[in-house]
Amino acid sequence: MVERLTYRRHSRYATKANRCRTLRTPGGRLILQVVKKNAKGPACGDCGKRLIGLPCLRPLEYRRLKKRERRVSRAYGGTKCAKCVRARIMRAFLIEE
After folding, report:
1. Over the stretch 7-40, which tens digit does the pLDDT of each residue have?
2. Prediction pTM value
3. CA–CA separation, 75 and 81 (whole Å)
């Protein structure tokens, strides 16, 4: 027969945040290992495209990174993609003239 397992966290339902996988320990016991949610990563604020050069992490894990790892060394780095920044600069320059 199959060994029955219970959730080890607060929620006892098979929700999206409570995904688990069964794992056999070296001692032969079956335990539940909590699977992390997969991250989408940062996106451009204007066009919604995923930003390159930045890791795809959960929001809490971004806080643990250094500032240089969270952003790109450019104006609007880490929030807007290069194409949108270029368009903004061009628009500002053309309006000024």
Report:
1. 988 888 999 989 999 999 999 999 999 999 999 9
2. 0.69
3. 10
